[in-house]
């Protein structure tokens, strides 16, 4: 009885913890992509999956014991059903003496990195000498899945344009969690990546969206920048409680710095939730209330009935009065993605399932390419 009481007490204490950890054993490396491994692990619960970030902990191998963060899976929340490796037993990595900026600050996983703004940075002089973005198109995406059609449309219309993706920290923090970005780089649709704020793992690190935008233009020669969160948008069905509200801040940053903000609205006629039918209520809040500068809003060509609803929603929310709402053919981006073998998905839906969602992002890329032509 004493042993059972002790076990029950431990379970009660575990439920009260904000962070849940468990020990697992790596049984296989199932997949590897840029910066990450997908592992098969055996835990007390059985055979499960985990993500190991190579840049943080090195490459794990079958037979190793690993400490796993199991918080989200055990609570039946997001993260795609993955646990995350926090430590590899007996595997200590020597600290690399570079950089003075700490990311994941004040957490057990904080680490040093070199950012583009630091005094020792080879890009410091270029960043300091850049006074404005000179109307460089900045596509502000609402969701990570919009990055692909936007980038593809730019490259389809302007093949020589340099496209830089800035990933913010509103959703997934490690860029390595994205399987989309490596495929876009491999296909030649993205030329460089910058991770800002607490996000990490891009080709370059920056402290915030503003300095990231300046660096993209002045240091890395961007012709077009796409700014948006990584995978895993947060939503609560409340007016203000959603992760993609940061899209408004990205639009404002582009405008303040003298760029050309292009906003991608979230549009869907396949999402069963009423708040996301037509123009999502999230986009209406961002474009109707959060933004402080004028932007181009990309609306894709669609059927007359659906387009009428979209215009009505934008009018009612005050978006039409605040921004330049432009109807643009968005087919280019989807064609380029298909030609280069990149499968576009959002919440499990493909362009065939939910065309307007992907066409809106592709339309933004088309607008950016047109802006390069003056």
Detailed description of the structure:
The chain has an eight-stranded parallel beta sheet, with helices on both faces. Helix content is 32%, strand content 24%. The protein folds into two domains: 11-88, OB fold (Dihydrolipoamide Acetyltransferase, E2P); 131-372, Rossmann fold (3-Layer(aba) Sandwich). Strand 2 and strand 3 (46-53) form a beta hairpin. It is an alpha/beta fold and 374 residues long. It has 13 helices and 17 strands. It starts with a helix and ends with a helix. It has helices at residues 2-15, 54-57, 71-74, 124-129, 147-157, 180-186, 209-218, 246-256, 281-290, 304-316, 319-322, 331-339, 355-372, and strands spanning 21-33, 36-43, 46-53, 65-69, 83-88, 101-103, 111-113, 137-140, 163-168, 192-196, 204-206, 224-229, 260-263, 267-268, 278-279, 296-300, 324-328.
- Overall tally of domains: 2
Helix-residue proportion? 25-40%
Instruction: Give, in spatial order, the strands making up the sheet with the most strands.
Output: 11-10-9-12-8-13-16-17
Indicate the CATH topology of the largest domain: Rossmann fold
Mean pLDDT rating:
92
Shape descriptor reads: globular
For this structure, what is the CATH class of the largest domain? Answer: Alpha Beta
CATH 2nd-level architecture of the largest domain: 3-Layer(aba) Sandwich
User: What fraction strand?
Assistant: 15-25%
Low-confidence stretches: none
Order of helices and strands: HEEEHEHEEEHEHEHEEHEHEEEHEHHEHH
Main beta sheet, described?
A: 8 strands, parallel
Number of strands: 17
Which structural class do the helices and strands define?
A: alpha/beta
Question: What is the CA-based Rg, rounded?
Answer: 22 Å
Number of helices: 13
**Beginning-to-end CA distance, first to last residue:** 79 Å
């Amino acid at each position: 009885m004493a042993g059972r009481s002790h076990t029950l007490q431990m379970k009660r204490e575990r439920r009260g913890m904000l962070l849940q950890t468990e020990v697992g054993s790596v049984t296989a490396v199932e997949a590897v992509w840029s910066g990450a491994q997908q592992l098969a692990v055996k835990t007390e619960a059985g055979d499960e999956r985990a993500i190991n970030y190579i840049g943080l902990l090195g490459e794990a191998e079958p037979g190793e014991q690993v400490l796993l963060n199991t918080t989200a899976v055990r609570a039946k929340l997001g993260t795609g059903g993955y646990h995350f490796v926090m430590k590899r037993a007996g595997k200590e990595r020597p600290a690399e003496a570079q950089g003075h900026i700490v990311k994941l600050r004040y957490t057990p996983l904080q680490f040093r990195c070199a950012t583009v703004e630091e005094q020792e940075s080879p890009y410091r002089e270029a960043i300091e000498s850049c006074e404005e973005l000179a109307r460089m198109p900045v596509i502000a995406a609402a969701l990570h899945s919009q990055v692909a059609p936007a980038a593809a449309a730019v490259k389809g219309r302007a093949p020589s344009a340099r496209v830089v993706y800035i990933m913010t920290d509103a959703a997934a923090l490690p860029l390595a969690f994205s399987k989309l970005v490596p495929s876009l780089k491999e296909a030649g649709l993205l030329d460089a990546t910058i991770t800002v704020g607490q996000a990490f793992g891009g080709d370059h690190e920056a402290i915030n969206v503003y300095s990231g935008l300046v660096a993209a233009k002045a240091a890395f020669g961007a012709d077009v920048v796409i700014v948006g969160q990584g995978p895993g948008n947060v939503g609560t069905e409340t007016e203000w409680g959603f992760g993609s509200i940061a899209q408004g801040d990205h639009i404002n940053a582009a405008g303040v710095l003298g760029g050309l903000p292009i906003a991608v609205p979230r549009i869907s006629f396949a999402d069963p939730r009423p708040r996301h039918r037509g123009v999502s209520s999230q986009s209406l809040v961002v474009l109707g209330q959060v933004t402080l500068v004028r932007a181009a809003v990309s609306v894709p060509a669609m059927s007359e009935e659906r387009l009428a609803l979209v215009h009505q929603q934008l009018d009612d929310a005050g978006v039409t009065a605040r921004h330049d709402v432009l109807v643009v053919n968005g087919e280019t981006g989807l064609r380029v993605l298909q030609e280069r073998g990149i499968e576009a998905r959002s919440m499990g839906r493909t362009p065939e399932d939910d065309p307007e969602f992907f066409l809106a992002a592709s339309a933004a890329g088309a607008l950016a390419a047109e802006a390069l032509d003056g």
